[in-house]
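Researcher: Going back to the complex we discussed earlier. I've cleaned up the inputs and rechecked each line, so this should be the final set. Can you rerun the prediction on the complete assembly and write out the structure?
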Amino acid sequence: MPLDRSIVLKAALEQLDEVGLDEFSTRKLAAALGVRVGALYWHYASKQALLDAIAEHIAADATAVPLPDGNWAEQLAAIAQALRDAMLAHTDGARVIACMSAPGPMARAFFERLVTVLREAGLDAVTAASAGDVLTSYVNGFTVEEQARGIRRQSRAERDRLFGFGVSVVIGGLRPLVGG
Amino acid sequence: MPLDRSIVLKAALEQLDEVGLDEFSTRKLAAALGVRVGALYWHYASKQALLDAIAEHIAADATAVPLPDGNWAEQLAAIAQALRDAMLAHTDGARVIACMSAPGPMARAFFERLVTVLREAGLDAVTAASAGDVLTSYVNGFTVEEQARGIRRQSRAERDRLFGFGVSVVIGGLRPLVGG
DNA sequence: ACCTGAACACCGTTCAAGT
DNA sequence: ACCTGAACACCGTTCAAGT
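Model: Rerun complete. Updated structure for the full complex:
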C-alpha cells in the first residue's frame, strides 16, 4: 500500500522519540519506511513541514484533555499541565513547538481555549490574549529547559513541584486582574 | 597571526547574526576566517562547544548591566529586561541559550545574582531558587517565541509592552511570598 | 498518483602529516 | 603549537524518469 501523510507522520514521531531532534533526519525516516528519501517530499514539502505537523499533533494532544469543573484558576492550571504533558510525551517536544515555523490550526485552537477561560474569568480581549501569552511562554520556557537539561538533574517529582510552583505564581499574578 | 578562542568566538557571533542558527556552520565560519575546517577543532572541541561559548557571552552581557537602586521588584524587572536584551542582541540568541548543553560560569553567575535579589527580599534559599527559575523560564520562553515568530507579527513597541506585562504578572505572583 | 534513481550542494568531525 | 589536506560518514532537496 502507498504511503500517506498520516503514516509518514506516525513514523516521524517514532523516530523523534528514539533519536531526538538533533539526530532526526529525513533519510533515516525514509529508511525506516522502506522507501527512498525523495518519496517523503511527495507528502511533505520539507523537513520543517514534517516537524510542523508534529507540532500540530502535540498541540492537538494538549487541547484534547477535558477542562475540569472549577474556577478559572483551576482550569488554567489544568491547561498548563496539559501543554507540558503533551510536550513531554515526545523527545524534544518542547523544542519542536518552540521552533515551529507558524502556529497551525491546532496550536491556535489550544490558545483560543486558554483565552476563552480568561475571558470568562472577566478579562477583556486584549488582557486575556496577553495573559494567555504569559502562561504559554512560561510553560514553553520551562519545558524546553526541562527536556534539554533538567531530565538528568532533577527527579520527575522535583520537576513537577517546580512546575506547579511556577504555574501558581503566574496564576497568582493574574488574580488581581480578574473581577471578584 | 594564529587564531585563538576569542577570535573564533567573535567571528562565530558575526556569522550567527548574519545567517541565524539554522544556517550557522563550522565550514562557513572557517571560510570567513580564511582557514580550513579542521583548524577550528583545535580551538573548540565541537560546534556545540562553540555555541556554548556564544551562550556564555550572552549570559555575561545579561549580567553586566548594573542593578538599579530600588526595591526587589524593580531589580527583578531590570534583570528580566537585561536577559531579554542580551538574547535579542544576537540572531536566535534565545534559542542558543535554550539549546546550550549545560549552564557555564556566566550563566550561573546570572542566576546567582537573580537569586541574591530574591533572598534579600526575604525568600528562603529554596523558594528564591524556584522563583528565579520561574522568571528565567518565562523570559526564555517569551524571547524564543519572539525571535522565532514575533518579529514579523508585532512591532517592537507591542512586544515590549507584552513582555513588560508578563514580567509584572510574574513579579505580582511573587509578591505575596516576600515578607512586607 | 506515487515512487525510484541519481544527482547537487552541502554538512560535522577526525587525523596523519606538515611547519 | 597550530594548521593543512584529505578523507569519512553523513545531510536536505530536486527532478527526470519510471510504473
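Model: Worth noting: The domain at 5-45 of chain A is CATH 1.10.10.60 (Arc Repressor Mutant, subunit A).
Researcher: Good, that matches what I expected from the previous run.
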